[in-house]
Amino acid sequence: MPQGGTYPELPEKFCVVNPAASKLERCWFAEDYAAVIDYCAERYGIQVVITGGEAGFEIELASRVEELVTSSVINLVGKTSLLTLAAILSKAEFCLAPDTGPAHIANAMNTPVIGLYGVVSSQLSGPYLYKKYVIDRFEHAVKDILKKDPEQIPWRTRVHDRKAMALIRKEDVMKMIDRLMADQSPE
Questions:
Q1: Are 83 and 77 in contact (CB under 8 A)?
Q2: How confident is the model over 106-145, as pLDDT tens digits?
């Protein structure tokens, strides 16, 4: 795999899915990612590039997603440097990711980000250039899991429970992809 600012041969039109975050509790689920990836391929003809780091759970999650999809994906999990990742993200149609470094890199590269937030508020750490594409279920998680009023909690509160990410439905992500693609299409 090339290092630095170069990147592997990629299709002309692709999006990046970075399924994992630094902690498993911030990760969405393989089955949901697979459904969304197949949706991108079927509805928009977009090839998906899966990215991520070298941690064992990141590799396992990406492998599980790859097993579940019916469309083809390019799995680069654990195979890119940060510079290569930035170059890939700069060419992508969009990036789908939970609260993780690649979402912030995509934001910095001016690549639209569909952010998935449940454990922490997107107001705290979301992609500031693309807030309109964020799916934020943090307040629901605070109410449903912590049994607290979102208006009464400290601003740095986290919902340390995988159930927070389960509040994000794949149908909502598909609708957000539709919105983003409509916004990007020439009138």
A1: no
A2: 999 999 999 999 999 998 889 999 999 999 999 999 999 9
150 to 47, 74, 97, 125, 169: CA distances (angstroms)? 38, 39, 24, 17, 21
Quote the CA–CA distance of 109 and 12 in Å, as a whole number.
Answer: 17
22/174 Cα distance (integer angstroms): 24
Q: How far apart are CA 91 and CA 16, in angstroms?
A: 10
DSSP 3-state assignment of 174?
helix
Report the candidate in 76, 68, 64, 116 with the shortest Cα–Cα distance to residue 95. 116
Q: Which residues contact 20 (CB under 8 A, 6 or more apart)?
A: 27, 52, 53, 55, 57, 58, 61, 62, 77, 98, 100
Token pair 């990215």 in the structure block, residue:
51
Q: Which amino acid is at 141?
A: A
- Region of 74 (left: φ > 0; alpha: ψ -120 to 50; beta: rest) is beta
Sign of CA dihedral 120, 145, 26, 22: positive
